Amino acid sequence: MSDIYQAGVCNIAEPEIKHRKNTYGWGGVAISLALFTILSFLDLSPPYYIVLAIPVYTSAMGFLQAKEKFCVWYGMNGVKNMSDEVGETQEIIGEMNRQKDRQKASSIRQKAFIYTFIITAVLAIFGHLL
């Protein structure tokens, strides 16, 4: 257990980081690419590509949480996991710490939303041109 909890900075250790990157980050990419291929093959108009937003957002959240070493759900719910087991949480002590974590979680969600909007728009335009 080499990672140390820091309010508003880091609330997950390496096993959780890898889980978010591999499961949500790369999983979202795989689903996005498969769905993009189907939409392009069907030659649908750009508004149909909005369905890509869900897996793109999932992917963005996974990669951002891994990069930031911070779980949004944990941050919003006042828990952390600095153990070697995925999903094993401990309660955050202190309202100031919980507030910092909520702010960090909100920041990550905002970044993921912006990335999702941009990536989905680009895919919709590009997919329609294929």
Residues in helix, %: 55-70%
One letter per element, helices H and strands E, the order comes to HHHEEH
Give the CA-CA distance, first to last residue: 48 Å
Strand content: under 5%
Low-confidence stretches at least 5 residues in length (pLDDT < 50)? none
Output the radius of gyration.
Answer: 17 Å
Mean pLDDT: 95
* Total of DSSP H or I helical runs spanning 4+ residues: 4
Order of adjacent strands in the largest pleated sheet: 1-2
General description of the model:
This protein has 130 residues and is mainly alpha-helical. It has one domain. It is 65% helix and 3% strand. The chain has helices at residues 14-41, 53-68, 72-76, 95-129, and strands spanning 79-80, 90-91. Strands 1-2 form a two-stranded antiparallel sheet. Helix 1 runs antiparallel to helix 2 (53-68) and helix 2 (53-68) packs across helix 4. The protein is elongated and about 55 Å long. The model has no long low-confidence stretch (mean pLDDT 95).
